[in-house]
Structures are given as structure tokens and as C-alpha cells.
Amino acid sequence: MSGSTRSSADLDPRRRKILFRAWHRGMRETDLIMGRFADEAIAGFSEAELDEFERLIEVLDRDLLGWITGEIAVPENYDTELYRRLKAFHHHDKPIHV
């Protein structure tokens, strides 16, 4: 089961693939992090942002989750404007699965 609240009907094939991949990473917590952000933002991504988001999708779940929670320092080459938007999108005043 996905968790996506967004239809992909209005998206081009590349965005559809990225949206699917964002919701099917492997670890449920990172599915929620990437998927919810993608639901909200993917339609407005530029080509460069799509490239960057695809690169973030390839990061290991444990690393991405550690970056988002602040348990692991974000490597400089991933500390991009898009990553900061992803991190800011998720507020940590409640559990991630809510």
C-alpha cells in the first residue's frame, strides 16, 4: 500500500516514476518522509530539482533518516536547497508515522 494522497494522472512519466519510487523505498519511515514531500512538491519541481530528488531517493534509508533526525551530519554534497526543503517539510513535534 502506498500512502500517497496525490493522483499521478496529471504527471509526466518521469514524475510518476519518481513519485512511485519515493513511496517505495523500503523502510516505512523514509517512505513517509520522501513520499509526503513528493506528493506536495513534485509537480512543481524543475528538471534540476527532479535530478536532485532522484539522487536523494538513492540514499540508503538509514542514512537519510539519520540526516533528517539530526543523528548523522549531512554530507556537504547532499546539503542542498532541495534537501533543506525536504527536511523543513517535516516537523518533529509529533511522531513521523502520524
UniProtKB/TrEMBL annotation:
The UniProt record lists the keyword Transferase: no
Family per record: Belongs to the SdhE FAD assembly factor family.
The organism of origin for this protein: Bosea spartocytisi
Superkingdom of origin organism: Bacteria
Keyword Chaperone: yes
GO biological process: tricarboxylic acid cycle
Record protein name field: FAD assembly factor SdhE
Keyword terms: Chaperone
